[in-house]
Amino acid sequence: MISPHTSAPVGEACVSPTVYIGRSVDNAIRSVPRLAQGLVVKQLSRTLATLALERASPTSLIRLAHTTNGQPYGEPGKGQPKVPLSISHSGPWAAVACAAHPVGIDLQVYRGFSAGAQQQIFCDKAKPISLVAQTARWSVREAYLKSFGRGLPFDLPDIAIQKYNTRGATEYGRVYTHSASLAPASYWLWHTLYFCCAVCITGDWDINPTLSFHIGK
């Protein structure tokens, strides 16, 4: 059972993706073997993706499909354009973004990174950054790659993050590659006590998602 609670953003945006964030309840995670816990969250992410596609076009049937490299999208039928979709999960949490433009989402439960990763990707040698900031930067990079249907391996130090503004628990900015191998994108980043969630859409947009929260069994 999924119980939605929707929070609509204030103001209007040129591109306004809908973001679905769900958590598998503790009993569902604890009642299965450790190796199977990831399957519980993956199933939750698929359920959220199906819900997102149903709400994206309530008058027609859109099925969840994947490209040859595993990128999810909505398949509305022959001759119809694909519906942009992105999926992420970390720990007991799952997230899905659905938009009118190619979109990438990445949710990360706060975690530490190796000393090598911190030195090469996340920090200035003279100024180390916090675990929360490391996780956030990783999440923005992952969402950026997903918006192009890309993933790892990738030269992560080539990706630059330019923060424009911070409003409470959310952050807005621009992502691009120094080498210009990928087009610039706009990002939206949300911090919670447990995780951060980043959304990226290529182009110059004011991203102001509609958030929909769910609790799954």
Automatic annotation (TrEMBL):
Residues 127-172 form the 4'-phosphopantetheinyl transferase domain. The keyword Transmembrane helix does not apply. It comes from the Bacteria. One of its GO terms (biological process) is lysine biosynthetic process via aminoadipic acid. Keywords: Transferase. One of its GO terms (cellular component) is cytosol. Coiled coil: none annotated. Signal peptide: none annotated. GO terms for molecular function: holo-[acyl-carrier-protein] synthase activity; magnesium ion binding. Belongs to the P-Pant transferase superfamily. Gsp/Sfp/HetI/AcpT family. PANTHER family: L-AMINOADIPATE-SEMIALDEHYDE DEHYDROGENASE-PHOSPHOPANTETHEINYL TRANSFERASE, PHOSPHOPANTETHEINE TRANSFERASE. This is 4'-phosphopantetheinyl transferase. It comes from Pseudoalteromonas rubra.
